[in-house]
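Forwarding the complex inputs:
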Amino acid sequence: MLNDLRPSFEAQRLAAVQRYAVLDSPPDGAFDRITALAARLLDAPISIVSIVDTDRIWFKSHHGLDVEEINREPGLCASAILQNAPWIVNHASVDPRTLANPLVAGEMGLQFYAGVPLTTHDGFNLGTLCVIDSQPRQISADDVATLTDLATLVMDELELRLAARTAISLEAELRRTAEVVAAALQSSLLPATIPIVNGLSIVARYHVASDDVVGGDFYDVIATDAGCTVVIGDAVGKGVKAAALTGIARWTVRTLVHAGLAPAEILSGLNSVIVNATDTPQQYVTLALADVRLEDGGADVRVALGGHPHPIIVRAEGVTENLGKTGPLVGWRNDASYSESAAHLGPGDILVMFTDGTLEAIAGRNATDNAPIRRLLVETSNRTADGIADTLDGALHSDLDDDAALLIIGVQ
Amino acid sequence: MSPDPQVEITSKRVGDCLEVKIVGELDLNVEVEVINTVEGALVANGPIAQLRLDVTAVRFIDSSGIRALLTCHHKAQADGLDVTFLTTPNGPVQRLFTLAGLDEWLVTS
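Prediction (whole assembly, two chains):
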């Protein structure tokens, strides 16, 4: 009777079987070595690691028997897991517990069975390690002890695999959470959309070095009465601290732009804010800020730099020039001062701003000379804001060491 | 200690000056190590008037490396020390000092 073979707490026991995720798993040498060892040490032709499922007994390892699984009902392992001790049948055809069993009475002619339950640390019997013979026989106390030790080994292997699986899924879960948080934080530090400014083509690109760490680079485009103010920057450091600093920088710049300040004044103002406002010393950002005013036949640009790589102007005729003179890192010291540089952009001229991650990715480690980028800008076949963004993007290798941002302003 | 450490920092006292020589690559991996080692050397050497940071043998430096140097600079200045950087013209540190707009503000030789 099947019902007689159901241990109490069967639902929890089956849940434990599921938890170990061993059913229908591929063959595993560790278990095959244990069944081979059990058969040899106990001089038995057959040894099995069995797992008792809802209505079948599945063999994780079967030595000396070419069968993958049997029905649960006649299976002796189903009886064995009802015990919390080795289950021994010395002479099955005369043993009242088994004499009617089809495995005993039928073609298989099983006569000897010794099974030790595989018990989880929380007390559920998943299955057995058993040895089987077609001859009746006795088993010594030493052999029972050997079989019990080997069953413990089987259980150790199962626990090890469960622990590894748990660790992997936990790590994956943590990584997913970190990625979601980083993405949410990141999106709050970058403009959702870039405003449309008549007469200009503005393109931004952003690449983070790592999906689960929020980047320290940022950019912003703020529409003004005369055109727009564009800013690109890099908070020194990575992760949440850098992100907090980025947030301060981005919103302070926006406020100062709306107050009508000039680029150098904006950098000085932001410098004071960071020097005085962060409770962590030695926090700073690098920043390039350009005020772009549309004029007849082009745009006038005024640029201030704080410890940031020079923006590059690409002229319509294909020559490049560096723009700006850098002042110190923004937020480093109270007495910092910044200067402005001016340039006129004609139709077809393009202003290219980028962070040091872009410089490093294109020009190599230790690069402070932007010649490799300027060469790309001259050689590109599509000298438009989009074309230049694609060219620089294409030159970034996939495995970035640092975040990389680009902000490109083309005059139509 | 790994057999090939990314940075090696040695220090010696010459009169009232502590000379600290940094060899290797300065980035995020060693930022804290550099700061702690230099701070430790300042404490271990008692009252001194000058800190001289020799960065001529720094082969690579990024923004985190700059922050490490600036933090050392900041802490030593806060203790009343004169701080000087010994750099190689056109070397990685000097170039990044220029790029970061620091060269007018730091004493280099």
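The CA atoms of residues 19 and 52 of chain B lie 5 Å apart.
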